[in-house]
Design goal:
This protein is an all-alpha fold. The protein is built from five helices and no strands.
């Protein structure tokens, strides 16, 4: 029974994330959708402890993004996102740091052409 509940929770969260991404600008939506899809695939067979942490963090992400994309919040602040606590970098693996850097590069492009952002499904771990 636990496995069925877990699968249901994961599916609901996965769908929620994509629904919340609909409120993002097109470039960020594509980037966010691809990133979420890749992360959920990567963690498909993780151990229960990692799954608990994974679901907790993605749930917080979905809640924060939903709050930030509400029309009232957008009218007041016009911002989306949250700064990463620098202490979190100490807990990340080299692989995660590379992934974070790549994400930073992709979102920091100063271009009017959204097609220049590389949002392919390429797995950063394949490097």
């Amino acid at each position: 029974m636990f496995a069925a509940d877990h699968v249901l929770r994961v599916r609901m969260l996965y769908k929620l994330i994509f629904r919340v991404h609909r409120a993002l600008p097109a470039e960020l939506r594509i980037l966010g959708d691809n990133y979420a899809r890749d992360e959920f695939k990567r963690h498909k067979n993780c151990n229960p402890h990692e799954a608990s942490i994974f679901l907790h963090e993605w749930t917080n992400y979905a809640i924060n993004l939903a709050k930030q994309t509400k029309p009232l919040h957008q009218a007041k602040k016009k911002t989306v996102g949250k700064y990463l606590d620098p202490k979190m970098l100490d807990y990340m693996t080299d692989e995660q740091l590379v992934q974070l850097y790549e994400l930073h590069k992709a979102t920091s492009l100063q271009s009017d052409d959204p097609d220049q952002i590389n949002v392919s499904d390429k797995n950063i771990n394949d490097r």
